[in-house]
Structures are given as structure tokens and as C-alpha cells.
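Item description
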Amino acid sequence: RILNVERNGNIIYTYKHLYTFEKDLHVISCSINSERTLLAASLVHSAKEGRKNELQPGSKCLTLLVEIHPVNNVKVLKAVDSSIWVQFLYPQVESHPPPENHLLLISEEKYIEKFHIHVIQEDGNKVVLRDSGHLPRERVAEDFVWAQWDMSEQRLYYIVLKVKTSPLASFTRELIFKCIQCLVLYVLRLVNFGCDDLQDQGNLSKHLTLCVFTNHTGSLCVCYSPKFDSWEKITYSVFYFHKGHSKTFTAALGSVDSLVTKGLTFLNLDYYVAVYLPGHFFHLLNIQHPDLICHSLFLTGNNEVVDMLPHSPLQSLSGSLVLDWCSGKLYRALLNQSYLLQFLWNTQLDCEKMAVLHCVLSCGRDPRFLEAKIIQWISENISTCHSFDLIQEFIIASSYWSIYPETSNIDKLLPYSSVLTWNTEIPGITLVTEEITLPFMKVHSFKGYWEKLNSNLEYVKCSKPCLLYNNSMVKREWHSLISEEVCPRLTPLFQEEDYHQRLLIGLMVSELREHLLRHLQGIEKKKIEQMVLDYISKLLDLICQILETSWRTHHLHPWVLHLRASAAEFTVFHIMTRILEATMSLFLPLPPGFHTLHTILGVHCLPLHNLLHYIDSGVLLLTETAVIRLMKDLDNSENNEKLKFSIIVRLPPHIGQKICRLWDHPMSSNIISRNHVKQLLLNYKKQPQSSMIDKSPGSVEFLPLNYFIEILTDIESSNQALYAFEGHDNVDAKFVEEAALKHTTMLLGL
């Protein structure tokens, strides 16, 4: 219990005293049971004070079991000339009191034993051994060459070397990797686990650095590196057993003068494993999605990140814990979110941008803040990335991480990245990928981690085609649904509620729901449907965030339409065009109103011929709101007349006629009149005239026009109900006559 912290940093604290040993003994291993009633310890005599952790010739190692609640009897478990490591096992579910305690003893003589210790309570709360004279024990393993204890998950990993002899007197070696979930019947067995050329099984630890890492997603990684045989390069391998393959990396160490004085360190960072050689390189490996090297980050000794890390030997422990051997300090290793964001702004390499982007999003702490920072970075660096589309990658990755923590196996069903292949080399490192033998699991019932690992292994075994969702089915259905609406050289007018985008969203919801229902077993339909809605809502929300950030950054606001754009409007138009390109190639929906805003900015920013080219090629899509604003807000200057007329002739006729009514211009009146006459004369049959033309007061002395107008008037009066159409009440023969005269006057220059 901490009592006080002084100004100079000294901490005053109290602690519970467990047991006192003689001063001439050194504790090399110690463990206490979960109830804090039993203490196990291994002690050695040392001839030299400065060599506390080495077994001296002639010294004896004592492994003791001590009753400490209260301090009472001491039982000697081992008295040997080799070191013993002790570890109490902790039950997954606490019970009061537990039926028995379990103690592992791992010997330097290459065997592992498990003691079963029964205790009883006496005189109230006094805890003693029930039968101290006889403690049942069993051999867990013999002749192992390497072992690792996972404290947080209570798992024991070890390797045994088996030699098979053939009738022809030849022999082969097999390294067999095993894992035991202590207190539960889980056994994992891997055959032919690398390092086949080792001749001396007793010196395996001197030949390589080896670590086993797992996480809650069911991943199983074994990392190892052989002893260095060159000062110019170093080789290390990572076995991704949950993926069914291994990767062997070879990293260049720079000049021959840059000697390697420290060993390689492997660190467990949840979704990542870090490989670190002090002063030389730092490799952050993506263990959830290891297929593409661009999703992992490799930094050489020239990078300041490598200089920031400790240069002393480190040992990785369970749960991202790291032990600094030199200082004796214990750390918890975490990815620094703020520094990753800073690195994202400064890096120039596309492969590093890709890796850090995913790394930042995987941190999961305050995702809204992270997304805002990344969007700001994208807005200012949108044209600096050439190997992949920044907007695509951000939208896909961020949407993935918003759903991923909720459901296991979703990483096999939803896309993690927009990039499917990566052929560009990563400076300073090469790799070789190989398929590996999958582990054999002897398990009574799959639960927790083992259930997830088994699911990953079954997926690899079945060799199914890729189950990742894509919008190809949506694309096919979408084209079939809208094919009838698209006419040659005519631009469909999108409504402000954006019927087509709503249709696209509906198709995507339907296809994604069916995809997840088909492959996610054991999850209720309602939860999957909500997951689909959340995922697609996230896609749309991210696009809105990008737009809002760009708008806010460049201080844009609602404006009156004009044809001279500012630099800020050019920038935002460019960003919107990139958003459109990103979503179109992935066939993703856009938020309502996007096309209106994009078209209006296009009118601001583009010369007329470029604007019309964008419209004809489908980059700019005309919406009713955008066209109405064009007709109402722009005056009738010569350039604006050209723009308006060019827009009208590109609209479907029935919509163009409606839009023309909003443009008070002779050209518009001419178009309306032509459409009206065409509609009236569509089924006209000539009838004999019973009277001469009756000129009304003020009629024009132009007989062909007079005769034509009389015919139109007669048709209108006799077929008014048939030929009347909504919105054109003010269009009649008189309107046609005035429009014709005005048009003729303009043509004659009068």
C-alpha cells in the first residue's frame, strides 16, 4: 500500500511480509498460490555474491514448499544439483477453498513435474498440508529442449526432439512443439517445427531466440531467430499457425562496422508482434492480416523510432509485459497512439503510410478522435500516395475496425483493406512465405481461446474460396435495375432524396445481410441485421466526415452560384472528385446531396467544355436541386446562357421541359413551345375547315402563322382534357405564337 510520494520521487509503501530466508541463500524462483497460503521457492548457495542466478559447482538447489498462513512447516520438494523453476497454477474460476493446489516444477535436467497439494484448515483460518509426507505428482514432460510459461493464460509451451531410426540405420530428427493448458485438458501438438539441422538438443536455447504469442482472437504465433552468423544481415521466422503459413524475413543490418551487440527481442502487442534489434531495426508484424507485407511496418536504424526504444536486452512476458534485464524494471508495452499519428504525417513511403494507418485504427482508443486526425491528414496529403487510394483504404479499414471487436470470424467475412496485392519491395527487408503443417489439437470441448483457434484452423483446412464480402453482386443487380433509365447522350436527373443511392444502399444491405447470415453460425439474425446497418452507416458517416472536415478546413460556406472559383473551392472539388472515384470503383453508396454539392462546385471550378465533359462521362451527375439552382441563380449573360442551354439539352425531354419553365429566356420559351406543339400534333388528323380565318384584333399579318395558330387553338379547345399535362397550364397557342415571333425577330436581327 502506497503511503506517500516525496518531492524527490521517493515512494513510501508497506507490503505484506511472507517469509524470511537465510541471508546466504539466493532465491532463483518463487511462486505463491492464489489464496496466499502456500509459498514455493528454489534457493541456491552461492560462492560469489555477484553471481546470484548461476548454479556454482558443488552447490545444491533446494526447492521448498512453505506454509505461510500462518508461517508453519517447510517441506523440501527437491534437493538437487540443477536449477528448478517453480510455478503455482491458478484456476480459471476462483473457488473458496479450492479442492487442491497444483505446482509445476521445471528442471534444468529437462523434465517437468506437476505436484497435487491438498490443504486443510485447522484452528479457524490456519491452513496446513493435509499429508505433507506424500504429495502426489506426475511427469508432464521429459527430455524437452525448450519451454515457455504463459502466465496470463496458464499455458505451458515446450519442445521435444524425437529421433526416428530407419531399418537402413539412417535417422531423422523431429522437433515437436506442444502446448498444455494447465488444469484443463487441452493439448496442442506440432510436428517438424523447423530447426531440423540442430545436432545438440541440449544447447537449443543457445542456438535460437524463440517466443510463443497468442491473443483473444485465436491467433497462435511462434517466433524464432537462429544465432547470428553474419554482421550484415539477420534472419528470423514467424509461424502464423492460425493462418497456415510461415514467413521468413531477412533484414539488412547496414554497414559491416555496425556490429550487433544485443540479441533479438520479440514483443507481444495484441494484434501485432514486434521484432526489435536495438540500434538496427524495428519490425511491427500484423498477425491478424499477415498476407501482405505492406500491412506491417519495418523501420531501419536510420529512423528515430528505433533510437527512442531501449537499447538494453528485453524479455517479453505474458500480456504485453516486458522485462528490462539491465534495470530490473517491468514494463507493459503499448503502441503509442499519438506518436503513430505524428509518424503518419511525416512518413514519405506508401508502404509505411499503409501500415501505420491500420496500426492507428487497431488501437481502438477514442475512434472518433482518431478518425478526425486521419481525415485531416488525408485532406492535406490526398495526392501524395501513388500505390493505393487513401480514401478507399481509410473507409474500408475504419469500417472494418468499427465492427470487428463485436464478432469473432468477422475478419474472414469483411474486407480489411482495399489492396488485394502488393508487389512493391519494402526497403531493407525480404521475405519468403511457406505453407506449414497445421497443429493437432486433443481437446474434450472447445471453449474460449481454443474454440477460436480451432475455428481459424478449420478455415485454413477447408481451403475455401475467399469469403470476404465484395460488392460484385450489388454491381450486377444495380446495372440491371438502372439500365432502362439510361438513354444515349442523355443525363438522368437524380432527385435530391437520391433514389439511385437509396437503391444502392438497399442492395448492399440485402447482399451483406445474406452473406453474413450464410457464414456466421450461432449468431441471432437480429444481431447480424444490426451489424449490417452499423457497417453501412459507418461507411456513409466516414464520407460525411471527410466532406465536413474539408469544408471546415477551407472555410467554405453557402454561396450564390458564380463562375469564378477560389483556391479553396478548387481544393474541395478535387477532394470530392477523389471521393467519387474511390466509392465508384468499390461500388459504395454516397450520402444524400453529394452529387448536388459536387455539381455546383464543378460549375464554380471548371471551364464550360471541361464541365460538359465531366457531365457526359458521368463524373458529375445532375440532380434536380443543382439544375434548379443553375436556372434561378445564374443571370442570362452570354456564358451563362451557353451553360444553361448545354445542361437542358442533356436532360431527358420530359425533365428538360419541366426545368425550362424555370428559365425566363426566349430560348427556354422556344423549347417549351416546340414540346407543346409536338405533344398536340402527335395524333393530329387534318379536318376540313368550314370558315375562313377570322383574324382577331392585334393578330399578325403573317398568314402561315395565323393559320397554324388557329389549328393549334382548335385542337386545344376540342381536346383540352386529353392534351393538358401537369405544370403547363400557361402554355397554349397564344404562348406558342409569341415565342415564334420573338424567335423569328431574333433570327432576323430586328
About this structure: The first helix runs from residue 204 to 207. The chain is about 35% helix and 25% strand.
